[in-house]
Every structure is written in C-alpha cells, then in structure tokens.
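PROTEIN–LIGAND DATA SHEET

This sheet pairs a single protein chain with one bound small molecule, NAP, given as SMILES. Inputs appear in the order they were entered. The predicted three-dimensional arrangement of chain and ligand is reported afterwards as a token string under its own label.
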Amino acid sequence: MDGAITMPPPCDAKRISILGATGSVGRSTLSIVADQRARHGDDCLQVVALTANRNVADLAAQARRFRPDFVAIADESMGADLADALSGTGIVCGAGAEAIEEAARREADWTMAAIMGAAGLRSTLQIAERGGVIAIANKEALVCAGSLLMRTCARTGAKLLPVDSEHNAIFQVLDPERRNAVVRIVLTASGGPFRSWTMQQMKTATPAQAINHPVWSMGAKISVDSASLMNKGLELIEARHLFDASPDQLEVLIHPQSVVHGLVEYMDGSMLAQLGPADMRVPIASTLAWPERIATPCESLDLAKLARMDFEEPDNERFPALQLARATMEQGDVACTALNAANEIAVEAFLNKRIGFLDIVALVSDVLDAGQPDGSLWDGAPESYEQVFELDARARAQAQQILKQKYSR
Ligand SMILES: NC(=O)c1ccc[n+]([C@@H]2O[C@H](COP(=O)([O-])OP(=O)(O)OC[C@H]3O[C@@H](n4cnc5c(N)ncnc54)[C@H](OP(=O)(O)O)[C@@H]3O)[C@@H](O)[C@H]2O)c1
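PREDICTION REPORTED AS:
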C-alpha cells in the first residue's frame, strides 16, 4: 500500500425505479443516486420510473434532472399538469392508480417501494410479482399483507431488502446460515418527541409538536407514528415477517441517541449490532449496493464525541401502542390489516385536528375491539390480496364510524 486514497468502486451499473420519489425516503434515495452519478458518471445508475401522489412540481423537477423513461402521478386529475410540465422532454407520463402499477411493473434491477401507507401495497405487490429486488420502506404493506407478500416473493424469487433503519441493521447482522442460533432480535426506538412527556402533556399535544422528531427527519405520518410508538409496533410486525421471527423473539429498547439501530443476540451470548448516523441514506445505500458497499455523503459517527449511549425499557403505560401492536400480531394477520388501516385513519384525523394525540391509539383499539362492521371478529389470515383490500376498506369504514360517533364535536 502506498497510502494513496483509492476511489470507492461504484455499485454495479443498475436500472432503478423509485415509487414515492417526492417523499422523505424518495428524496433521500435520489440524493444517493446523485452522489453516485457525481462520483462515477451518469451511466452507473439509470432511472426507469419515478412516481408521486399529487406533487407535480417536485416530480417534474426530479424527472428533468434524473431523466427516467416513465413518470406516474397517482392523482388522475394531475395528469395533464404533469404532461405539461414535462412536454418536450420525451419522458412518458402516466396518471392514476394503473400508472403507478405500470411504474412498478417496468423491468428494473432495483426498485424503492417508498409510497406511504397501505396505498403502497398494490405497487409493492407488482414488483414482487415480476420477481424484482424490492428495497422496502413501505412497512404498511408488510403489516397489512405480510404473509401474502412473503409468499409471493418466495414464489417469484423477488428479493426484499429492508430499508427501515432498524430492519436494515438486523438484516446486516443476522446470519441466515445460523438462524437457529438466534435468541433475540432487538429493535431500537428513539422514543420520539414525547419520550419524557406526561400523559397530561400528550393529551394536548399538537400535530406540529408530534411531527417535530428529535432525531429523524421524516414524512408526517411516520413522524406521528414515532411519537405514539405505533411506528415501533408496526415495525415489530414488519420484523416478524421479514425475519420469520416468533413474537417472543422480538424486543424493543428505547435508545434516545439513535446510534444503534438494531441488535441480534445469538445463543452463545454474543450480541451483534449495527451502528450508524441517523440518516436514512445509509440504509438506502446499503440496499442499493447489496451485497456490496458504496460510499455515501453521510457524516460518519464520532463515537468519542457521542460519549454515551442510553438504553431503557419502553413505558407501556404512557405508550400503549406497542402492547396493542404486539397483541394484534399474536391475534393474526387479519387483525394486523385492521390495526394498520385504523391507525392510518386515526393519524389523519389527528393531523386534521379532529382528535387529540392520545385518541389515536384509543381509536385504533376501539376498531380492534368493535370487530368488523358485520359484527365478526378481526380473526384469521387473508388468503388473497382481494381479501386484504376488502378488510382494509372495512377497517377504515369502522374507524370512520367510531370517529363520527365518539369524536365529532
Ligand atoms: N421517512 C423516513 O425516514 C422513513 C423511515 C423508515 C421507513 N419509512 C417508510 O417509508 C414510507 C414513506 O415514508 P416517507 O416518510 O418518505 O413518506 P412521505 O414523505 O409522506 O412520502 C410519501 C410518498 O408517497 C407518495 N404517496 C402518498 N400517498 C400516495 C398514494 N395514495 N398513491 C401513490 N403515492 C402516494 C407521496 O407523493 P406526494 O409527495 O405527491 O404526496 C410521496 O412521494 C412509509 O411507509 C414509511 O413508514 C420512512
């Protein structure tokens, strides 16, 4: 070695797509793409498709910069605006749910699934059906249809690479050849903005306070989920599917510094952890390069400056979402579909100031207790995606009904 710094190698040239490109994860993904292109030239990563829900301006700006073959906007009424914004570029535009699915179906070597909520299930499913590599950020797809999605991937050979920082950490340290030697899988949680708040304080918490996450910068829905710890509950269910773990193998630890993202304990007492900065570009880059590594523009951790790391048990009294999600996971897949749908309605109602912060988990719990609109329980496992969509719709209707009866002012 002559001490010269060598240029880190690019990931293999890839054709990639990003579903949910205008969101927090989508933008972080494009930041990694831009960084790789700056290091290795534009050909190292070619963009096949980009999608958004309604944000035409940002989607068009991304398309002009990254030159995908195809862009899709979910809201059909915005289709003409998108076509106008990209006229003369030669980029093919589509609008509506079918266009988002087309973006997912287009052949790509790696596809980021970063649409928010159960709305991402159809497109995630399309990538799985074509046997693609799925960088999965869209945790709600795994929560509402985890068994079906895992079975589809097994059938088609699709590969799921976890993007959620905790699951990505576990993916990095979980030895699939030694799966039987795993005793425990630990997901860490920052504790969110209300980690040390009293119930009284949380009762009057505003959307702006809930979204103001102390460590991570994320979209509104996941930020509220982080504040209630429902995010960690959803992640337990996500981990169960991704790592084929039993509920009693999965644990959550509050770790306010968010430096250790996930840990795996083996039967000999060894615990392996992944550490990294609280920057989603790290797990995104790890899935983009997998099984290789690429350089990122992220700041490296300064452990000496950090000086200490704290870990504590979650407080289940102040944050009942975690226990609710755990009980739901044990109840079965249908209950998980209902939990996710009810939570999406409850978070939206909170963001629109229709309910208070503590009402979010109370409403989800009410939906699970009330059962389906026809009186049957949220029991069993859905056997098809059609059943998942039907159950998701029923849980949303039940949540809206309870919202109207119990919370309309
Ligand atoms: N943010 C994070 O750091 C983070 C970390 C781990 C996991 N995740 C997960 O990653 C996913 C995305 O999170 P995010 O924070 O990036 O969300 P976000 O900032 O709200 O962005 C969501 C993206 O999905 C699009 N979208 C929303 N509704 C849609 C619909 N009905 N049909 C098609 N597209 C739709 C949005 O388009 P518009 O911009 O047009 O609305 C946007 O591109 C979530 O499942 C979240 O749990 C996020």
